[in-house]
Amino acid sequence: MTVQRPADPTPSAPDARPLQGAAWLPHGYRLAPHTHAEGQLVYAASGALATATERGTWVAPANRVTWTPPHFAHSHRFYGRTDARLVHVPLELCAHLVDHPSVFAVSPLLREALLALTDRPERRPGAHRRLLTVVVDELVDAAEHSLHLPEANDDRLRAATALLHEDPAQLTTLAELGRRVGAGERTLSRLFHTELGMSFHRWRTILRIHHALAFLTDGMSVTETSVACGWSNPSSFIDAFTEVVGQTPGRYQAGLRHHLS
Questions:
Q1: Would the N or C end of the chain have less CB density within 10 A of its end CB?
Q2: What is the pLDDT of residues 170-193, one digit of tens each?
Q3: What residues contact residue 108 under an 8 Å CB cut-off, 6+ apart?
Q4: Residue span of the signal peptide, if any (predicted)?
Q5: How many CB atoms within 10 Å of residue 101?
């Protein structure tokens, strides 16, 4: 396999073949919106990444892998110095996976298979294909941990979420947010549930966790991150982070240091 380093972050040609291989990418590196004729897996062996589509944003820390089906326009942004692994999935194997962008838990076997696919040259014909089928089998059985932040269609809701994106740490109540965008509190609450599938509180929590992952990956302390993302105290931040990500922020940072060592 030829390891390819991503070029300048400009849009690729529509339905281009996905990049395949490994590259160290600097904090904040972006790949602009593009599509692929095949599916694509992107794994941050260290660091973290966000994948954005018209349906919203998915964030993957180092214990998750992102999946983008064929023909889905998407972009990537990488947080921290990221050991990025990109694997293309042929169309005939894509049918075994979900038909929407998602993020999956990475088992020890899946991690080693992804690293082998992107690290080693193919020594025997068909070896990488056989290993790729193992990856797909693991993903079929893996838990879907989407860390998905959906985006709105309603203009009032889009205006409200835009305000939250600008300052995730703000303590604005739903009623105050409604007054700023010209919608009643009950109307805005209903829109969060009907359009985004979650409450205002839950959506803002996921947004804050997205930012927290970026801060932690870039080396900010747990206490500093909790303040920067709007939590009143580190304990409540640790509880929220653990519930969403599946591990404490301290353990997440320890894992990053382990992968970099």
A1: C
A2: 999 999 999 999 999 999 999 999
A3: none
A4: none
A5: 21
In angstroms, the CA 127 to CA 14 distance is 29
Locate the domains of the chain by residue range.
21-148, 152-260
Find, among 1, 12, 8, 77, the residue nearest to 44 by Cα: 77
Q: What dotted CATH number matches 152-260?
A: 1.10.10.60
> In CATH, what class is 21-148?
mainly beta
Separation of CA 159 from chain center: 23
At residue 180, what is the residue type?
A: R
DSSP-derived letter for residue 16 is B
Closest to 6 in 3D by CA, of 84, 59, 122: 84
Compute how many other C-beta atoms are within 10 angstroms of the C-beta atom of residue 153. 10
Q: pLDDT tier at 164 (50, 70, 90 boundaries)?
A: very high
Contact 35, 75 (CB under 8 A): no
CB 160 within 8 A of CB 183: yes
Whether residue 246 contacts residue 213, with contact meaning beta carbons closer than 8 Å, is answered with no
Tokens 């660091």 — which residue? 47
Q: What is the distance between the alpha carbons of residues 101 and 71, in angstroms, rounded to a whole number? A: 11
Task: Classify the C-alpha dihedral 84-105-195-199 as positive or negative.
Answer: negative
Helix (H) or strand (E) holding 168: none
